[in-house]
Specification:
Blueprint (H helix, E strand, L loop, with lengths): L1 H22 L3 H10 L3 H4 L3 H15 L14 E8 L2 E8 L1 H9 L6 E4 L3 H4 L14 H15 L6 E6 L5 H13 L5 E5 H10 L5 H10 L2 E5 L8 H17 L4 E5 L3 H9 E2 L2 E2 L1 H14 E6 L7
Parallel strand pairs: 3-5, 4-7, 4-10, 5-6, 6-7
Antiparallel strand pairs: 1-2, 8-9
Helix pairs in contact: 10-11, 11-13, 12-13
The structure holds adenosine-5'-diphosphate (ADP) and magnesium ion.
The site of magnesium ion has 5 residues, from helix 8.
Amino acid sequence: MRKVNTIVKKTDIVKLKSYYGEALNNPLFKEYVDKLDLSDDVLINYTSNIEDCLKEEENCKNCPSLKSCPNTLKGHVLTAIKDNDALNFSYLPCKKFIKEEKSYAYKKNIRCFDIPKDISNASFKDAYRDDNKRLPIFKYFKEFIDDYLNKKQVKGLYLSGSFGSGKTYLIAALFNELAKKDISSALVYYPELLRTLKSSFQTDYEEKFNYIKTVPLLLIDDIGAENTTSWSRDEVLGPILQYRMEEELPTFFTSNLTLKELETNLSTTSDGVSKVKAKRIVERIKQLTTSLELVSKNRRN
Ligand code: ADP
Ligand code: MG
């Protein structure tokens, strides 16, 4: 039995050597193995892996873009790394990948609760400027950034207006701008937050609730789109707004409803009508914000 194994091994080695010898005819392969500075006896075991590395390096030389990187692991290059008398193979990040990673480092400052990706990546640079109706909003943003960075007391924004006009996008762009200056924020799709909080009573309810209450900048997105319950109004929204008012933490809202309409919306729950409680919430929103409107064409596809 042992004898047979030895014979098989010998023929294998012959095959490996011949495969390796052929590969050496490729000057790029030769250059790659020369740099590794290992004996041929070791290198013959890795011919196809090294060829894979070369293929990936070749892809990099003709890099179409990071997005359409053809390598096995996007933005990475399979690389042979010497480990004593053997080789290890690792996927190392390419320059473009590292650059992009750095340019997104600010993202750690923003927490999104159910906000679509295109919106969470919003930026002033990419924002449409084709609509004069946005000018007062950009003016407000400029003042907000200046004042906030100079530690002045600032009010958030109650941005109401038509569906798809870009309300959420614009506030996300503002938060991204400030995240680059290391300011933390949260974008919270309000109807979904309520569902999430409801299902986390037994788990991390407190952690989530406190995070939203205390985060330096908060967007409560699409308020008024949910079914109001006395719990969501009096146990969630009320305490969040109360705390943020007392601590002077800028709070933003987007809504398809004007404040007047929101008040009506908040007054009716399945437990009955409470105009006083709804009014109290709206009063807090008024204290926390400046109101602007964005009625424009629907940009959603
Ligand atoms: P709203 O919150 O008013 O309903 P969104 O902010 O969700 O509207 O915007 C609708 C769509 O239009 C989104 O897909 C968003 O990416 C795009 N969009 C909106 N405003 C802009 C903008 N200023 N620049 C680029 N894309 C935008
Ligand atoms: Mg929106």
